[in-house]
Protein backbone atom coordinates (compact mmCIF):
# COMPACT_ATOMS: atom_id res chain seq x y z
CA UNK A 1 0.00 0.00 0.00
CA UNK A 2 2.91 2.32 0.70
CA UNK A 3 4.26 1.62 -2.77
CA UNK A 4 0.91 2.54 -4.32
CA UNK A 5 0.86 5.83 -2.41
CA UNK A 6 4.42 6.71 -3.40
CA UNK A 7 3.72 5.83 -7.05
CA UNK A 8 0.54 7.92 -6.96
CA UNK A 9 2.46 10.90 -5.58
CA UNK A 10 5.12 10.57 -8.29
CA UNK A 11 2.50 10.32 -11.04
CA UNK A 12 0.64 13.26 -9.54
CA UNK A 13 3.85 15.24 -9.52
CA UNK A 14 4.09 15.08 -13.30
CA UNK A 15 1.25 17.54 -14.07
CA UNK A 16 1.76 19.64 -10.93
CA UNK A 17 4.99 21.45 -10.25
CA UNK A 18 3.86 23.11 -7.04
CA UNK A 19 4.49 20.86 -4.04
CA UNK A 20 1.65 22.45 -2.10
CA UNK A 21 -0.88 21.16 -4.64
CA UNK A 22 0.64 17.70 -4.57
CA UNK A 23 0.47 17.68 -0.77
CA UNK A 24 -3.11 18.93 -0.81
CA UNK A 25 -4.31 16.29 -3.27
CA UNK A 26 -2.43 13.53 -1.42
CA UNK A 27 -3.95 14.70 1.88
CA UNK A 28 -7.50 14.72 0.50
CA UNK A 29 -7.55 10.96 -0.08
CA UNK A 30 -6.88 9.95 3.57
CA UNK A 31 -9.26 12.66 4.77
CA UNK A 32 -12.00 11.30 2.52
CA UNK A 33 -11.33 7.74 3.70
CA UNK A 34 -11.38 8.86 7.34
CA UNK A 35 -14.72 10.60 6.81
CA UNK A 36 -16.23 7.56 5.10
CA UNK A 37 -15.09 5.30 7.97
CA UNK A 38 -17.74 6.97 10.14
CA UNK A 39 -20.42 5.16 8.13
CA UNK A 40 -18.81 1.70 8.32
CA UNK A 41 -20.23 -0.90 10.68
CA UNK A 42 -18.10 -2.11 13.56
CA UNK A 43 -16.75 -5.63 13.25
CA UNK A 44 -18.43 -8.49 15.11
CA UNK A 45 -15.09 -9.35 16.73
CA UNK A 46 -14.80 -5.85 18.20
CA UNK A 47 -18.40 -5.87 19.39
CA UNK A 48 -18.02 -9.28 21.05
CA UNK A 49 -14.82 -8.13 22.76
CA UNK A 50 -16.80 -5.23 24.25
CA UNK A 51 -19.61 -7.55 25.39
CA UNK A 52 -22.21 -6.30 22.90
CA UNK A 53 -23.62 -9.66 21.78
CA UNK A 54 -26.85 -8.43 20.13
CA UNK A 55 -25.02 -5.78 18.12
CA UNK A 56 -22.46 -8.40 17.07
CA UNK A 57 -25.27 -10.63 15.77
CA UNK A 58 -26.71 -7.71 13.78
CA UNK A 59 -23.31 -6.78 12.36
CA UNK A 60 -22.55 -10.36 11.33
CA UNK A 61 -25.96 -10.69 9.69
CA UNK A 62 -25.29 -7.44 7.85
CA UNK A 63 -21.97 -8.75 6.51
CA UNK A 64 -23.14 -12.33 5.79
CA UNK A 65 -26.71 -11.63 4.71
CA UNK A 66 -29.96 -11.23 6.58
CA UNK A 67 -31.02 -14.88 6.47
CA UNK A 68 -27.67 -16.57 7.06
CA UNK A 69 -27.03 -18.78 10.08
CA UNK A 70 -24.41 -16.94 12.11
CA UNK A 71 -24.64 -18.76 15.44
CA UNK A 72 -21.74 -21.13 14.70
CA UNK A 73 -19.50 -18.33 13.51
CA UNK A 74 -20.34 -16.18 16.53
CA UNK A 75 -19.48 -19.06 18.84
CA UNK A 76 -16.19 -19.55 17.02
CA UNK A 77 -15.37 -15.85 17.35
CA UNK A 78 -16.27 -15.91 21.03
CA UNK A 79 -14.06 -18.96 21.68
CA UNK A 80 -11.10 -17.41 19.89
CA UNK A 81 -11.54 -14.17 21.86
CA UNK A 82 -11.63 -16.05 25.16
CA UNK A 83 -8.50 -17.96 24.17
CA UNK A 84 -6.64 -14.80 23.17
CA UNK A 85 -7.62 -12.99 26.37
CA UNK A 86 -6.52 -15.89 28.55
CA UNK A 87 -3.04 -16.10 27.01
CA UNK A 88 -0.60 -13.29 27.72
CA UNK A 89 2.05 -12.42 25.14
CA UNK A 90 5.66 -12.19 26.24
CA UNK A 91 8.71 -10.72 24.58
CA UNK A 92 10.25 -14.18 24.50
CA UNK A 93 7.44 -15.29 22.14
CA UNK A 94 9.13 -13.21 19.45
CA UNK A 95 12.09 -15.60 19.47
CA UNK A 96 9.97 -18.53 18.30
CA UNK A 97 10.29 -19.32 14.61
CA UNK A 98 6.60 -18.90 13.79
CA UNK A 99 6.77 -15.33 15.12
CA UNK A 100 10.35 -14.52 14.17
CA UNK A 101 10.00 -15.18 10.44
CA UNK A 102 7.08 -12.77 9.81
CA UNK A 103 8.72 -10.17 12.05
CA UNK A 104 11.99 -10.32 10.10
CA UNK A 105 10.12 -10.24 6.78
CA UNK A 106 8.19 -7.12 7.81
CA UNK A 107 11.37 -5.54 9.12
CA UNK A 108 13.16 -6.35 5.86
CA UNK A 109 10.38 -4.72 3.86
CA UNK A 110 10.29 -1.60 6.04
CA UNK A 111 14.01 -0.87 6.07
CA UNK A 112 14.32 0.11 2.37
CA UNK A 113 11.50 2.63 2.76
CA UNK A 114 13.10 4.28 5.78
CA UNK A 115 16.78 4.16 4.83
CA UNK A 116 17.52 6.75 2.19
CA UNK A 117 20.90 6.90 0.50
CA UNK A 118 22.79 10.14 0.76
CA UNK A 119 24.72 11.50 -2.15
Please give a structural write-up.
The chain crosses the membrane at residues 20-40. InterPro entries: MFS_sugar_transport-like, MFS_trans_sf, MFS_Trehalose_Transporter. This protein has 6 helices and no strands. The protein has 119 residues and is mostly helical. It has 2 domains: 1-40; 42-112, no CATH class. The longest helix is centred in the N-terminal third of the chain and has 18 residues, at 19-36. The two termini are 27 Å apart.
Distance between the termini: 27 Å
Task: Supply Rg.
Answer: 21 Å
Most strands sheet: none
Would you list the SSEs in sequence order as H and E? HHHHHH
Helix run count: 6
- The structure class reads mainly alpha
InterPro entries: MFS_sugar_transport-like, MFS_trans_sf, MFS_Trehalose_Transporter
Keywords: Membrane, Transmembrane, Transmembrane helix
Subcellular location: Membrane
GO cellular component, one term: membrane
Any chance you could write out the topology, listing elements then pairs?
Blueprint: H1 2-13, H2 19-36, H3 44-49, H4 53-64, H5 71-86, H6 97-114
Name the descriptors:
119 residues; 6 helices; transmembrane helix; mainly alpha; MFS_sugar_transport-like; transmembrane transporter activity; single chain; flat; Facilitated trehalose transporter Tret1
Amino acid sequence: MVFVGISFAYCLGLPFTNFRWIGLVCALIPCLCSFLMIFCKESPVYLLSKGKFNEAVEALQFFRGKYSDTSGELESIRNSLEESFSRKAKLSDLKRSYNLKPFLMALGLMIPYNVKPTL
